[in-house]
């Protein structure tokens, strides 16, 4: 694989992106990509069949790809000499071609997520519920809850810059006990669809209805949406039960996480 010069990464990416490769896990906007590139968070590699970006995280490196076929997987061992812990996300239908290709080359699944969707039914969520949005003063507490709850390899925990943007855009609501945050929801809105990025309840307060309390508030402030989506760990049965209770239904779309 050919390493792309740092100064040429953005130009190479925009050229490849024009042709809309068949398979890709690039979900950046152009601005997000440019910001990360300017911060020197990327290394890029290219062959005739694939364009790869490797992003440095705290304890591992994340692999992004744009390709039309999967022959390049055979060459990953070459990269693993430089990046011992590579994480890659494969999104598609159950046990799809991409998923099978990674298994064929000897890699095992680290974790599986499934998407759920709720279609707006027109029911009214009771008005008058107090909505508390998190502020910058809550940043450290939110980080503590995230790091104590989520898997840093597979759960896409927001970094400091992302968290700051969520807070600035009033995209985090919370619930408190004696002034301390015990749970929160981070959401992203796109048109008439709202996506729950994270829902978190402090371990010692789980099973007491706080998750439903947060969701009730979330739906109240998103009553104009037509649909709501989220991803859940297929082995997290309490989370699945909560989402099902609130009208979410499973879709045939999975996110397979591989640690290479």
Key descriptive features of the protein:
alpha+beta; Aminopeptidase
Describe the 3D structure:
The chain is an alpha+beta fold and 260 residues long. It folds into two domains: 2-84; 118-253, Gcn5-related N-acetyltransferase (GNAT) (Aminopeptidase, 3-Layer(aba) Sandwich). Helices cover 28% and strands 33% of the residues. The chain is built from eight helices and twelve strands. The chain has helices at residues 9-17, 30-38, 76-80, 97-104, 139-149, 160-168, 210-221, 237-245, and strands at residues 2-3, 23-24, 42-46, 50-56, 61-67, 86-92, 109-119, 172-177, 180-190, 193-201, 227-233, 249-259. Strands 1, 2, 3, 4, 5, 6, 7, 8, 9, 10, 11 and 12 form a twelve-stranded mixed beta sheet that branches. The chain is globular, with a radius of gyration of 20 Å.
How would you concisely characterize the structure shown here?
With 260 residues, the protein is of the alpha+beta class. The protein has helices spanning 9-17, 30-38, 76-80, 97-104, 139-149, 160-168, 210-221, 237-245, and strands spanning 2-3, 23-24, 42-46, 50-56, 61-67, 86-92, 109-119, 172-177, 180-190, 193-201, 227-233, 249-259.
CATH secondary-structure class of the largest domain? Alpha Beta
The radius of gyration is 20 Å
Distance between the termini: 17 Å
List segments where confidence is low: pLDDT < 50 over at least 5 consecutive residues: none
Number of domains: 2
Structural class given helices, strands, pairing? alpha+beta
Order of secondary-structure elements = EHEHEEEHEHEHHEEEHEHE
What's the number of extended β-strand segments?
12
Number of helices: 8
Helical content, roughly? Answer: 25-40%
- What is the fold-level CATH name, i.e. the topology of the largest domain? Aminopeptidase
Biggest β-sheet strands, sense, barrel: 12 strands, mixed
What spatial form do the alpha-carbon principal axes imply? globular
Strand content: 25-35%
CATH architecture of the largest domain: 3-Layer(aba) Sandwich
> What is the CATH superfamily of the largest domain?
Gcn5-related N-acetyltransferase (GNAT)
